[in-house]
Structures are given as C-alpha cells and as structure tokens.
Amino acid sequence: MIQCNDIILAYSNDAEIRQRATSGGIGSTLVNRLFTQGRIRSAISFEYDSEQLKYMPRIVASAEEYAVSGSIYHEINLFAYIREHIEEIKSPFLCFALPCQVNPIKTLLDKEGIEAYIVELTCSSQQTFEATEYLLTRVGVLKSDVSSIRYRGEGWPGGVCITLNDGGTIRIPNNNSVWMSIFHSHLFIMPRCFFCRADRETASDIKLADPWGIDSPALEKLGRTFCHVKSERMASILNGMADEGLISYECRSEKEFLQSQHGTVVRKNYNLRHLWFAKMIKSVLNNKLYRKSVLTSSFLFDAHCFLYTYGCRCLYKIDQILGRK
Asked: Is the overall model pTM greater than 0.70, yes or no?
C-alpha cells in the first residue's frame, strides 16, 4: 500500500496515454481519474499553438478537454496565466507546475479560496523558446514549414518530433543528439535556473520525475514515472487507482530517486555553494557577442559544449577531492 512520503516507480495501464506521455503517463491518468470521480472541477492543460509553435496553457473543465502534451521545453509564465484567468478556475483545481512555480501558485489559489491539487514536475532547467528555434536551424527546417512540435512521447526516453506542413516528420532522440547538446549547453536556460535549489521545499501533493539512469532504454521501451508521494490524500488516490487497475507500480528508494537526478543535483548544489561561478557563467552565456559567435556555426557551438561540460566536471571533481559534496 502506498503511503505519504513513499517513492514509487509507476506507469499508466492505458497504453495510449503511456505512449503519448513523457514517461509513465501518471500525470495524465491522474487528471482523468480525478475528473471521473468528481474530485476536481477544473485543471490546467497545455495545448499546441501552430502559429506560435508553442504550447499554451488553458483551463479545462473535463477529462475530454485535457490534452496529453508530454514535457514542454520552453518557458511558460504559468503564474501570470493563472492570475489572469482566476475567474475561469472552478474549485477543486489540478495544476501541473515546475518546482519554482508551485509555492507562488499555491499561495495565489489559497488566497482566492480555491482548493488545489498540485503536481510538481521535476526540472533540471527550463529553456527559452530560442532553444527550439536553434534546433530548427540545426536540422535545416524553416519555422514556416512546421506544423507541430512534440518534445517528448512515443515511448521511453522518447525525443523531439517535428511534424512538417507536408506531413513529413523529423525525429531527434533524447540521448546523444543535437537536442541534448542544446539542452545541456545552458545557452538557452532561464536566468533563474542558474540559482535554483535542488532541495526546494514545495506545497505539492506529488512530485514526478523521469527515471534517468534507472530505466535502461534497451530494456524499458514504454516508460515509467518516478513519484514522490507528498500528501495523505494523494497516497489514497494512488491506492485507489492501483486497486482499479488504472496504474501499476513498485516501491523504490529515495536513494534511487535522487540517483535519477544526480547530474542536476550536483550542478545546482555547486552553483549555490559557489555563487561567483554561477554569476560568472550566467554573465558569459548571456553576453550578446559570445552568444552570437557561438551560434554562428555548429563547430563553435560544439566547441562551447565540450569546454563548458569539461570545465564543470573538473570543478566538480576538485570539490570531491576537497571533500565537498
């Protein structure tokens, strides 16, 4: 039986949801369950805008209106959207949010007297839309030729799928690809991400994460979701979902959960211990001349990625030698 503070590795037994979702499809299955039971009357959904090539938030009032979008790797000012559309929200409300968004959104909803279920999405960093634009440049696609973009889905670990107006598709895997280089270059992350805390305390009911390094893509094809259950009511809901055969799960350890996010935790902890380093890197990566130079050619971009990654690893290694974790 699932209890509050348990760590589970779970997946939806709905094959379609599991295939379309980021990993195990637990978030989407949870939305369907709570709407069906009448435990929520509205939820946040993210729907693709083909004109802007971006995912946009929308308040929905039923499971049928909810869109399974998978991960979204461009910035969405979710707090501002919820504040501007607060009159459309019917309590109880389910909201997906990044760690840095959870507490401000929860405070706003509490102030308005709206009961909320908050699903926290583990985040290594959030990208500006410029990352997507640069990806299109690297694969030789014009924005005007793009019909839609999905950043995740199609099994584990999935990847970016660009659908063109002529019906063709371009797929870029998550591992060992130009998209991963763009993501880890840190040229496109939001400024706040340089100073994010890995151990941020939030008021969420459940925290979801990808099982990086735990589920091998060679063995796991469809995907599972790491879940840190953070409230008694969420534990009760998940137990009901398991009893009805909506989800399957196995209990795992906190150590494994943290292991799946090891690289992110190391980087964030290092930046907070050495603010001078984080400020310096942020300054360099946001310098217009440096950015323009690096993004001029694939060779210079790849050189940046190599030097940045190598330099960070050297600094982390020195910290380990000195006994700092």
From this structure: yes
pLDDT of residue 325: 53
Residue 324, pLDDT score = 59
Other CB atoms within a 10 A radius of the CB of residue 128 amount to 16
CA pair distance 322, 193, nearest whole angstrom: 26
For 246, the domain range is 7-124+198-262
Question: In this structure, what CATH number is given to the domain that contains residue 246?
Answer: 3.40.640
* 129-138 and 178-185 helices, crossing angle to 10°: 150
Alpha helices in the chain (DSSP H): 15-20, 26-37, 78-84, 99-111, 129-138, 178-185, 232-243, 254-260, 262-273, 275-285, 288-294, 298-321
For residue 163, pLDDT over 80 is answered with yes
Which residue in 90, 83, 39, 34 sits closest to 63, CA to CA?
34
Pairing of strands 7-12, 225-229: antiparallel
Q: Which two tokens stand for residue 260?
A: 């799946």
C-alpha span between 232 and 224 (Å, rounded):
22
Does residue 282 lie in a domain region? no
Q: How far is CA 39 from the centre of its chain?
A: 25
Residue 171 phi, psi dihedral angles, 5° rounding: -115, 130
